[in-house]
Amino acid sequence: WQLALPAGTERAVAQRAASVRSLMRLVTTADGLAALKCGGGYRSLEPDGTCPAADGRSSTRQRAAPSYGVQLESLFRFALPKSSSLTLLDVSGNNLGDVGLSALGGALKLNRSLRRLEIDNNAAGVDGLKSINLALKGNKKVHSLALPDDDISALLAAAAARYKRSLSDELAARQLLKSAYGRGGYCNHAVKQRGMAALKSAKQEQARARVAKDKLRTVCASLQASVLRNGEVATITAAGKNMRAESKLASEASKSAAKAQGKADALREANKEKVWLGRHKLLDAWVKHAGVLGKRGHDVGWFGEWRRAWGKPYLNPAALAAVQKRMPAAQREEWEALVLGAEDTFASEETLDARVQGLLQEARMHRSQAEFHAAEVQYHGMLSEKDPRAEAPPRLEAGIVRTEPPGKERPGQFGSGYYTNWDARRNWIYGELRTAMAQPPPRDYAWKG
Q1: Average pLDDT by stretches of 10, the chain with 449 residues
Q2: What is the pTM of this model?
């Protein structure tokens, strides 16, 4: 069942609220409802792949996009836990936010019918994804959930923009600190305090950007591991049913192979006598024709020599090729009808042999299918012996790249104590910050799915 969203006006908002109420009645009363798609038009990324949320603003297209938003929260809280037939739920593009996704996570803790879930383009945050992940740790039924790539990309883009701004703020703070000092040891302490506060704030902002990025990647890896675990649990749970189905298919393939083999053997036996009788008749016809030509005064001694060399009472394709080589060119016209007749006979034999080979190929194909299904029976039999409750999520790498903050020098790099070269240190830090500002953020700030 799929619901089309009205456009973003006040009347449309009222219609959406009414639609949510209708959805609640539908989900709770329709026993045969298996799939519900109520996706909206909200997109976390612009069509060109950029993220408007990176600068803290929403685009006009986003604000005007028709979506349910947190209106679906009532559906999640009161209707979804009661559904026993719904297996697919698509709520992508609805700008649910962390509040809506947390409500969906709460519903997943109670619902046991859902198998597939689509939640991308919902302005998801770390807390919302964490709610879904916590729900899936207890609900092992949902085995198909693609990571919300657009939402994750938007969050990482916002963290990357935050990180880049912090670099600019740090450079400005260090320059402010430098301006607090004058000649002769003069120091403007008010300016120095402002610079130190700004530097501390910039460093904290860098740390917050890195922590936000690392938390998001950790939650995504955990969520993906939970979905993979649920997929394995679903495979183990269905192993007995799949084993019976594969066993039936293997039996059917074996019967089909035996049937095709039997047809091939029967056809071969039925045609064997006919083929060899025809080949004997061919040689008899050639011998008779040679006698007729001999009475007409033609030299057919070559035919007698070939027949003695051949020494068999029938004619086959190899013998036909040999006799044609011995045949004088002057007599080819006299023997042409017999040659054509022999070629037609052998062509009909090839047709029969092709039918036999086709049946044999069919038998081989069915035997291969039977072997495949037999292997599947063994595989599902092995799975059926596992305990699905003992399955644990696999360990997945979060893709976090450990890098040093720009401008962090090595101990003793510019001297130590009284002998520290402060000018060289300051210029080096400035250069490192400017280089980091000109370059893209570390690669784990980008999401490739």
Answers
A1: 46 62 85 86 73 50 63 90 92 92 95 94 94 94 94 94 95 94 87 95 95 96 95 94 96 95 88 85 92 90 91 90 90 90 85 86 95 96 92 91 88 86 91 94 87
A2: 0.74
Q: Within a 10 A sphere around the Cβ of 418, how many other Cβ atoms?
A: 5
67/43 Cα distance (integer angstroms) = 10
Beta bridge partners of 37: 2, 90
Distance, in Å, from the CA atom of 388 to the CA atom of 318, rounded to the nearest integer, reads 66
Express each pLDDT in 116-145 by its tens digit: 999 999 999 999 999 999 999 999 999 999
89 Cβ neighbours under 8 A, 6+ residues apart: 35, 36, 80, 114, 116, 117, 118
Radius of gyration for the chain, computed over Cα atoms and rounded to the nearest angstrom:
41
Distance (Å, rounded) from C-alpha 393 to C-alpha 223?
9
CA distances from 292 to 146, 285, 302, 341 (A): 86, 11, 15, 18
HEC profile of 230-281: HHHHHHHHCHHHHHHHHHHHHHHHHHHHHHHHHHHHHHHHHHHHHHHHHHHH
* Per-residue pLDDT tens digits for 8-24: 444 444 566 677 888 88
d(CA 182, CA 133): 56
Instruction: Report d(CA 36, CA 30) in Å as an integer.
Output: 11
**In what order do the strands lie in the sheet containing 35-37?**
35-37, 88-90, 116-118, 144-145
Cβ-proximal residues to 105 (8 Å cutoff; 6+ apart), any chain: 128, 131, 132, 134, 135
- H or E segment and range at residue 116: strand 116-118
Pairing of strands 35-37, 116-118: unpaired
Q: Which residues contact 130 (CB under 8 A, 6 or more apart)?
A: 219
CB distance 148 to 121 below 8 Å: yes
